[in-house]
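Practice problem: predict the structure.
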Amino acid sequence: MPFPYKRVLVIGATSGIGEALASRFVEEGANVIAIGRRKENLEAFVHKHGKDKASAVPFDITELDKIPNFATNITSTYTDLDCILINSGIQRGFDFSKPDTIDLDVIETEFKTNYLSYLALTKAFLPFLQSKQQESALMFTTSGLALVPITRCPNYCASKAALHQWILVLRHQLRESKVKIVELFPPAVQTELHDEKHQPDIKNGRQIGMPLDRFIDEAYTGLAAGKEEVVVGNAADWYNAFEPQRQQVFKKMAG
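Answer:
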């Protein structure tokens, strides 16, 4: 199924879900601009797909003050940009029953990466997307843990829950515009998110969750079909248990 957008900015495209989805977009006919911190991974992505189909810009989204200039540079260079996927994310474990082990700097970085940067990027890119005559899209990767938390990574779950709530409101606020708001809910997926180098308490973390290729097949099918919410794997069990009813309450409150 062809992807409905032609020029896609993928933020957080150096590994895992972001890199795999970016590759799938290229394979389905889109031209992709890959964004991330690791320059060598970005160069490998462009080399793999060719400069006629892929380009890359190194950028650290936690540098919030630099996001406005970043957005201006991207939109002035790629005037046909019609889709942005913000996928960046980190996960760290915390046990608040042991307060002395809690590093607030790490908590701040995790929340900035998973939540505040998404808001700053949206604020920076929205005027450009709103000015377009045709439909465009802002896509966000949250998590099944936005719906039901697990105990080992409370700040990660909180950041994804905050992002999910914000996306619901953003979609409502932009309901009269041509900017489509899409949320992707992954389950645990076999990526480096769970690697021991990031989370030493997890062993063989790359084996946790849904195989990446299977996840990409399901996620891409939903995104290409134009769904506003794409819930994959066992995240769908949690979603279906209560989220439709909760959103009905939200819609009544929103009017």
